[in-house]
Amino acid sequence: MQIDFRASASASASAKESRMVDNFLSSLSDTDLLIETKAAIKIEREATAVVVRFFKEINDRELYLKHACSSLFQFATEKLGYCAASAQARINAMRMIQVLPEVEAKIESGALSLTAVSKVQTFLNLEKKENRTYSIEERREILDACVSKSTREVERELAKRNPNILKIETMKPVGHDRFQVSFSISEETEVKMKKLRALFAHANPNISLEQLFEKLVELGLEKFDPARKAERTQKRVEKNISHSSKMSFADKNSEPGKLGALTGIEDSEIDLDRSFRAHEMKRSRYVASSVRHQVWSRNQNQGCEFVSEMGELCGSQLALQIDHVEGFALGGSNQADNLRVLCAKHNRFLWKSQFRA
Fold first, then answer.
1. Which of 33, 144, 180, 196 could join 28 via S-S bond, C-beta 3.0 to 4.6 A?
2. What pTM value is reported for the model?
């Protein structure tokens, strides 16, 4: 009996088919079981190489953006069902094959494992962050040194080239709602961390690193999150206007500095808003601060507002930007009803789509 593993992998096997496979495997001798296992592994490697090729085509077409994903990694995990590690391994292999096409054949033959190729690509990515670049020949030399080696041997090979390369940042789930974060810090940063920890000693003498990290993250969001800035501004405006309801808008606007004192908005922002109104007829790209606050408040921290044709919301929080629904160059206004929040990739994707149509 011969089992078509390709068909089994591509179709949802019924309980009957599953039993047939189990019966077939249990009937094999030890020698035949090993022969069939090696045949299945060969098919698996070939299928993996094909999947990597599919990933390349999806990436080239930016199909993930059409499906409201800000990255190929998000598309692979959320739409294709891969776990994070498997998705990243295939994406890394795709990046490597784009530079060295011959790597695909080595993955198919088993000379290079998918894990080995992925680790080499990760190594090159980390080196690039340290401003160390590698030529095509140097990349090929590294890969050749990893042929037919185990994962541990590949790691040792890469560590020879840079002993610090394995000290990378990691974040992995360790429970339903818990993550383990790992990264190294400099001695200078460690001294600063100790000092900050000491400053919290009166309120919390036993503050943990997690609690300290949480406070720093919260402080960062409070300072840089545009949605929070908009919320604070709106609260100041409402509070101060309620206490000054007897003042007419004309009086407030006629005396320099009074509007800022009343609303809690910086005078510089008020001046910019006035400048915007004065130059509106000149088609300035400037978006008034009050309008920006309105757009961020309306967003309610939902992230990128791109919605695919299938109704999928992107929601990415990465590199968010305010974008014109009707393009500024096409006559779109700078008013809140013509503005939206997009991640940088979907902003660029929609801009490019105008020329594809």
1. 33
2. 0.68
